[in-house]
Fold:
Amino acid sequence: MGTELGKYKTCVSARSTSKEILKKAQDGGIVTSLFAYALEEGIIDGAIVSGPGDEPWRPQPYVATTVGELMASRGTRYNISPNVSLIKEATRSYGLDKIGIVGTPCQMQAVRKGQLYPFGWRDVDDKIKLAIGIFCMENFPYQSVKQLVEDHAAMKMESVKKMEIGKGKFWVFGERGQVVQLPLKVTHKYEQPACHVCLDYVANLADVSTGSVGSPDGWSTVFVRSKNGDDIWTKAIAAGCFETKPIEQVKPGLELVSKLANEKIGKNQKTVEARATFGVGKALRNPYIKP
Amino acid sequence: MSKVVEISPTTRHEGHSKLVLKVDDAGIIERGDWLSITPVRGVEKLAIGKTMDQVPKIASRVCGICPIAHTLAGIESMEGSIRCEIPNDAKLLRVILQCANRLHSHALHNILTLPDLYIPGTETKINPFTPEEPVRSVAKRIQRLREIGQTIGEIAGGEAVHPSNPRVGGMYKACQPRAVTKMYDLAKEGLVLAHEQMDFMIAVLRNMQKRDWTDVGGKQVPIPKTLGYHSQGYMAADPVYGSSNLDECPRWDPKRWTDVRPWDWYMGEVEVSLADPSYPVGGTSPVGTKANPQMEACTGVPLYDGAPVEVGPRARMVQFKNFDEKGTFGQQIARQMEYPDCLHTIIKCLDEYNPNGKVLADNIPQGDGSMGWAANEAPRGCDVHLAKVKDGRVLYYEMLVPTTWNFPTCSRALTGAPWQLAEVIVRGYDPCVSCATHMIVVDEDKRIVAQKLIQ
Structure:
């Protein structure tokens, strides 16, 4: 296909140079490090991230205005965090003028759509200064994750240390050293159905998008997409926030990213097409085609 | 023999209204009727059966300039009905919101009235859109004041237009310390600009007051010293915020309010017998046009103690600050004098505000159907909302908005002025016509007598 990775200026494999961030980071600690740099440099004055919620492993969007607050949000929680819902409030009762936001590809689409057509987003669109997208194959509702962990992996949510999707498996690591791997075949039926129309794997519309796929363990693949993203990324590199390797020199490299992106697009394209004949005489709109 | 002139529509104010004027041979108004011809929206009818949370939000949609005043008056009338006291920090946020609204509204009004006025010492009328100095910097200052007002409103109220943050029982969100600092900085910046703007406007208005004539459509029209004088009373509930039935000493009394139907108040059918095609913009209505203010007016005529009253900046100044200047210029000057007050109040409230404080009442009763009212001092005057809430649903809702009060008063103030200056008098009230268009008329026994129009 050739367009599955979107437009980007540069692509590298990178990881944070901060040991503190890496300690609890999902992979290379890219999002936390980049936001921390942007916060300290005044590029943003707050970032909307998903921090710990009321229940174990339930993310809750919150506005981090200090690096300390940012630290609480390290790592991935594999279920839905409605980060965009906070973006307007961040400009209002939080009083932010320069916002950073992290989100999945669909959330990046929402952010850009809001900027393009700021209906109900008065004085919000111009305040988004850094949008970081994360790779996403699909997402789970909280109940799904709970069921996967508690029923399939036979572990209490409280005793989970880390969750990870990689190497074709859903991994659950327990506090006491248990490691459970579930084949993705098992997890498919727990996916959020709305994810099955999404044709974006690598957050094409973000300033910077990142994810573990394509890089070795402990490292992340980073696409720098926009001029703004490039500017901030270059400065962060110069400030020594990240160590990087050319993506061509790492295994498994961009080929795997392309493969998975195409897989997602191919699979979901079928759902999009199936929807054209869904219902009685009224097809569901294909969001990728102008009516 | 008196002649009839009709100016329709009137310009440089919000909404749709017209003037039907009976003038003498010298062109001096003997009787003027200023009436709203914006169609009735029927918010009061829409409100019935809706929840008490919905209604103030719907009510705020009557206007995009004072939605804050309508939201606050609507919410507080609900709170008045259900007898709900809100936490102090929520009240402070509401006062901040109120002042932010007044600030940007007054600044907007400056833009609308400046073209009536002259640059002092010259024969040049002010065009607020010209790129030339000295007007350019004034326009920029007005824009910045509006921006400051709207940004503060946005932070405290969630939105500058149709604020989302206020709710029955308090506010949805408290402002974080960073937001408080931002509002404080903006208010400090605004205070300097507000003083400059007030001084400028008063200088320009005093200059106009000293003039003997003004140019209207290429003709020299004398300015009477009594321009806009009337002998009606004033009504104001508070110098800044408002009052409600929950106050220890309420400053508005629903028993003193009655309504008159427009057909008992305005002129009957008349035919235009004087026209001036050179009157800006586009001339007056041609001779032979039929006008029927009685049937065309889309507002009731509210009376306080049986007579029309003036509401607005001057009414507040007269009631609470011993202001005594009459007429259009007095009214305009009173408005400018409110500028610094808005910002001083914001700063004072921010000093008192605690970001960690509670902004929502612990207990929000659902109401037993008793009457509640709130009189909010909107930029243009006292905005009274009345409501009855039972089990969380609205049984009765009424809005008595500032310009509704001002319509009959302003009509009387037109008498004695050259008809070409009628619009100048109207603009002195900073009319906001569309929200004034309501049609539930009650008589002395509070029976609804004109409901048929909105059914």
Residues 254-275 of chain A form the longest helix (22 residues). Chain A has a mean pLDDT of 92. Chain A is about 30% helix and 20% strand.
